[in-house]
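The following record pairs a protein chain with its ligand, 2'-O-acetyl adenosine-5-diphosphoribose.
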Amino acid sequence: MAGPEHRLGLVAEVRDRLGEADRVLALTGAGVSAESGIPTFRGEDGWWRREDPTTLATQAAFDRDPSHVWEWYEYRRGIIADAEPNAAHRALASWEPDRAVLVATQNVDDLHERAGSRDVTHIHGSIWRVRCQACGREEEHRAHPLPERPPGCDRCGGLLRPAVVWFGEMLPAAPIRQIQAFIDGGVDVAFVIGTEASFGYIQGFARAARQAGALLVEVNPSRTALSGAVDIRLEAPAGEVLPELMGP
Ligand code: OAD
């Protein structure tokens, strides 16, 4: 395990590069919201340690028992509505005025936006949007007292489902295009923050950013699938270390 001096050296190196950077990509995951009290998926208190993803985050699960899946999403909406952005979200937002920062998050919460980040793209959708299974219409949906069944579409009466990406589903095209275009425009520093990077496409974006010239930095107290492929690992909670990377 690296000592505190080693960590200070790494922080200084990232600070220097970030200070000069014009274009920054931040790939974030559940760990960035952990310090706001939102459970991760695979961490110690993670959802997938308690629940079987195939009973909650698949189309088959929703078809089988829509109320059960809806209830889980309403419960999570409640947690997210009560949560506040933490120092990591705020640090990322504070880097924006002097450089282009694209925040590409796997999180379905809105804490990056509430911290002030303007350029946020949601790779796995948003928990605040629902989509009609029958006609495809999307609309905003806020946390509500639990109905007995998921509400129906105003236009066609079809069942509304969360507009998030479930296992086995295609990613939405717009975020992928946006991230790719940003990388094609050149990246000076790319961060992978609070994610296991267990999906090939997340590893792919990180590697592509590095190939486009970025210093690739992982911010995570634990090792991940990507750790061996990054330039620098900042082995600490995001809310602790991100604020150290800029400012006085
Ligand atoms: P995971 O739960 O798989 O991983 C969370 C990561 O955050 C772990 O690597 C932790 O070590 C790290 N972590 C925990 N606390 C942290 C902190 N304070 N600062 C920095 N890192 C911290 O979450 P994701 O990788 O985001 O998808 O999961 C990706 C996707 O898998 C989710 O979007 C969700 C899930 O299944 C769908 O539901 C489609």
